[in-house]
Amino acid sequence: MLNLTRKLSEFWKNFNRIVEAQSNMGLEIYRGESRLYEVPLEPSLFRQYRAGKFGTNVPLSALEKSMIEEFKRQSFSSFKTQHSIPNNPLEWFTLAQHYGLPTRLIDWTTNPMVALYFAIEKNDDEDGYIYFNSNIEIFEYESADSIVFEKGEMLINGRPYNPHQYTILSNSSYDINDDSIYHEEIIFHRPKYIDERYSNQCTVLACPGSRDVAFSKFDRERIIIPSIIKPTLRRYLNKIGINSAFIYPGLSGITANITKNFSDEYLAMPLSERHKMKDLFD
């Protein structure tokens, strides 16, 4: 019990430190991962492609394009209004990413509590991690602007704009499938919140130009969440409304939240109480 209390105290000290950090650029972003991956901060498509899940005969760019086209074809009937239909390739990738399709995008959030949720959501036998960056520059992109990538350089209306990291706040018009946009930067995009998930998760998406863009070079910090405190932190987040029903709006999120709550409450019981429940229903 003392060990649990000490680890919780250490975690909240570290967590509050990154939450209170102030950005010189104007935007702080966070990402939670429930375990330490072989390549941290790797987009799901790149990770699964590297693991051979899609074979080795299909080029990554061709696979990516085929998957998003199939997503467009099968999902079209799900849109209730014209306004909810994505307007460009990046919006399609954003929507597909949020519903589980492997893409080159990787989710970040401006809400540290959302990052904490993802860091403790599962894998209770492994430590979780929150990655943090307070050095993201905001670029005010206007719909009339033209963005082109040329030989690793970003051109806006024909003029070079090449910071190390930057954010595009509104719709981006470049074609994410086009090999010509492969570049050496990591683009950060905050999508229009046309889907409730984006809004609840305070989504910011990172888009590397290619697999050669290593997030290991990306300027970020991380804090470790010991596995022993994950269930306690989940119960805390649930009390303040950060749970699967909030993160994943809809019936699937509600049922997942009910299941997780009953499981966590049971595991939090002393063994003597668990035995009493067992005797009651036997």
Structure description:
- With 282 residues, the chain is an alpha+beta fold.
- It has one domain (2-227).
- Helix content is 39%, strand content 19%.
- The chain is built from ten helices and ten strands.
- Strands 1, 2, 3, 7, 8, 9 and 10 form a seven-stranded mixed β-sheet that branches.
- β4 (147-150) and β5 (153-156) form a beta hairpin.
Can you tell me the residue ranges where pLDDT is under 50 for at least 5 consecutive residues? 138-152, 162-182
Sheet having the most strands:
7 strands, mixed
Task: Find the count of extended strands (DSSP E, 2+ residues).
Answer: 10
Structural class label = alpha+beta
Please state the CA-atom Rg, rounded to the nearest Å: 21 Å
Q: Count of DSSP helices?
A: 10
Which labels suit this protein?
282 residues, alpha+beta, 10 helices, 10 strands
List the helices and strands and how they pair.
Blueprint: H1 2-20, E1 26-33, H2 44-50, H3 60-75, H4 89-98, E2 106-109, H5 112-120, E3 128-139, E4 147-150, E5 153-156, E6 159-160, E7 165-168, E8 186-189, H6 196-201, E9 203-208, E10 221-225, H7 230-239, H8 244-247, H9 251-268, H10 271-281
Parallel strand pairs: 3-7, 7-8
Antiparallel strand pairs: 1-3, 2-9, 3-10, 4-5, 5-6, 8-9
Helix pairs in contact: 7-9
In short:
The protein is an alpha+beta fold and 282 residues long. The chain has helices at 2-20, 44-50, 60-75, 89-98, 112-120, 196-201, 230-239, 244-247, 251-268, 271-281, and strands spanning 26-33, 106-109, 128-139, 147-150, 153-156, 159-160, 165-168, 186-189, 203-208, 221-225. The model is unreliable at 138-152 and 162-182 (pLDDT under 50).
